[in-house]
Design a protein that fits this description.
The protein has helices at residues 19-34, 80-92, 102-105, 116-121, 129-136, 145-155, 171-185, 189-201, 211-214, 241-249, 263-272, 281-285, 353-361, 375-378, and strands spanning 7-12, 40-46, 49-56, 58-60, 65-66, 73-74, 207-208, 225-228, 233-235, 259-261, 306-310, 314-323, 326-333, 338-344, 346-347, 383-388, 391-398, 401-406, 411-418, 421-424, 429-435, 441-448, 451-457. By secondary structure, it is of the alpha+beta class. The protein has three domains: 7-78 and 220-361, 3-Layer(aba) Sandwich (Beta-lactamase); 81-190, DD-peptidase/beta-lactamase superfamily (Beta-lactamase), CATH 3.40.710; 375-457, Lipocalin. A hairpin with a 4-residue loop joins strand 20 (421-424) and strand 21. Helix 1 (19-34) packs antiparallel against helix 13 (353-361), helix 2 (80-92) runs parallel beside helix 7 and helix 5 crosses helix 6 (145-155).
Length: 459
């Protein structure tokens, strides 16, 4: 999700990548910035050595403050890997087991037979806490994990599927993991991560930070901005009706987000995961093993990491994050020890990770061409699809063309790939429209940056 801008220093390293590839990377991001499609920080490394690093745009539009390499960003769901590591460290300390029941630690919840392992793997079937808050919470108040647990216990929304039956991304599961960390350790979530992860690794600019809840400011903080389609300007999400209540009332919940960091600290984190600084190698490896469903099928998700084998690249561990004003990515190429870190604080268009991969590995880019579709066929997809509370994609048809517009973002054309499948040219994403038993379109699935997000048609 998520005017003059001054471009700040470039760092090139001679080791690893050839100079021409560093120049290609700079050309890519500089052109995107020139077109007002990229604002944020980029760091690309090989074997821990920085081969490209650059900042584009403003950390604070009001004060006209530039982004720098020291700018601290909200990581959104990239935070989940730190929550997972917190659980893994408690397991190392002998304080819990992955097979322990959720209700062992939070007995007031009604959900039976859900294990910590299933929470880590997104196979728990738990309902979405954000939807619960949108229907049952005074959005003028900031909620905490305790409030989330109380709502789940009081309203008892139905489980989505039997635990282990399928994979479905769950912010609820990771927020509950943070609550388990607090209960088992006797420490606040942020304090625990600082003591056992950030401080030992020397991640001096990384912390759990909730700007609205804590009512404080950070030096070098990169404020996140969304695009206001009415004023045609970037604004804080707090001032946009579509996002204001969400970023305010959910600011106190930790575990699924709220870790803040810099590109440099994330590189420290990345390199530490090739060592035994936090965990023995055999225990650490479990984070990068895909989960297994009840029927024996493997998922593409480990403990806080999406796990993929990419042609020409090998095994990768990655995660993206999205929150109003922010779009984040860390991608680790485990066979080559290459790292791509992108932190955006202006929510406009998506990440360009495939273009970066193509440059790093000399992969020839495929030019996608859409197939023609009759206008009357396109109208069946028109509607609003809710991917998360407060975040929808609206599909429209204009002059024989089909468009998608996400909440707080611009409208972009879709191109047909095959029946019910469309792709975007401005970002690396696909949309599949899903039909019911009588052939009516009832939902969509968004495929982007290695993740799948489903959205029901609500209008």
């Amino acid at each position: 999700m998520r005017k003059l801008f001054f471009v700040i220093g470039v760092l090139f390293a001679s080791a690893g990548l050839a100079q021409d590839r560093a120049l290609q990377l700079d050309s890519l991001f500089s052109q995107l910035h020139k077109e007002q499609k990229f604002y944020g920080n980029v760091l690309i490394a090989e074997k821990g050595a920085v081969v490209y690093q650059k900042s584009f745009g403003k950390a604070n539009i009001t004060t006209n403050t530039d982004l720098t390499a020291n700018s601290v960003f909200e990581l959104a769901s990239v935070s989940k890997q730190f929550t997972a590591m917190g659980i893994m460290l408690l397991r190392k300390q002998g304080k819990l087991s992955y097979e322990d029941s959720l209700r062992k630690f939070i007995p007031e919840l009604p959900y039976q037979h859900i294990t910590i392992r299933q929470l880590l793997h997104h196979t728990s079937g738990l309902p979405d806490y954000m939807e619960l808050f949108s229907n049952n919470w005074d959005t003028t108040k900031i909620a905490t994990n305790k409030d989330m647990i109380n709502l789940l216990a009081t309203h008892q929304p139905a489980i989505l599927f039997a635990p282990g039956e399928k994979w479905e991304y769950s912010n609820t599961g990771y927020a509950l993991l943070a609550s388990i960390i607090e209960k088992v350790s006797g420490m606040e979530f942020g304090a625990y991560l600082h003591k056992y992860i950030f401080k030992p690794l020397g991640m001096k600019s990384t912390m759990v930070f909730r700007r609205r809840f804590e009512k404080k400011q950070l030096p070098d903080y990169a404020y996140g901005y969304v695009f206001d389609d009415k004023s045609k300007k970037f604004v804080l999400p707090d001032s946009l009706p579509a996002t204001a209540s969400m970023v305010y009332c959910l600011d106190g919940i930790v575990g699924d987000g709220t870790v803040n960091s810099t590109t440099g600290d994330l590189l420290i984190w990345d390199q530490a995961l090739y060592t035994s600084k936090l965990l023995p190698a055999d225990m650490l490896q479990e984070a990068f093993v895909p989960g297994v469903l009840n029927d024996g099928k493997k998922t593409n998700y480990g403990f806080g990491w999406g796990i993929h084998d990419l042609k020409g690249i090998g095994k990768t561990a990655s995660h993206t994050g999205g929150w109003p004003g922010y779009n984040t990515l860390i991608e680790r190429h485990l066979d080559a020890n290459r790292t791509i870190i992108v932190l955006k604080n202006h929510e406009r268009q998506g990440l360009v990770v495939q273009k970066v991969r193509n440059i790093l590995y000399g992969i020839k880019e495929e030019v996608k061409r859409g197939i023609a579709v009759q206008s009357d066929s396109l109208t069946q997809y028109v509607g609003e699809y809710e991917l998360a509370p407060g975040f929808s994609i609206t599909i429209t048809v204009e002059q024989d063309k089909i468009f998608a517009q996400a909440t707080g973002q611009e409208k972009f054309e879709l191109f047909s790939e095959k029946t019910d499948w469309f792709f975007l040219k401005v970002v690396e994403a696909k949309i599949k429209f899903v039909r019911n038993s009588v052939g009516a379109v009832t939902s969509m699935t968004l495929y982007q940056d290695g993740q799948e997000v489903e959205g029901a048609k609500i209008k």
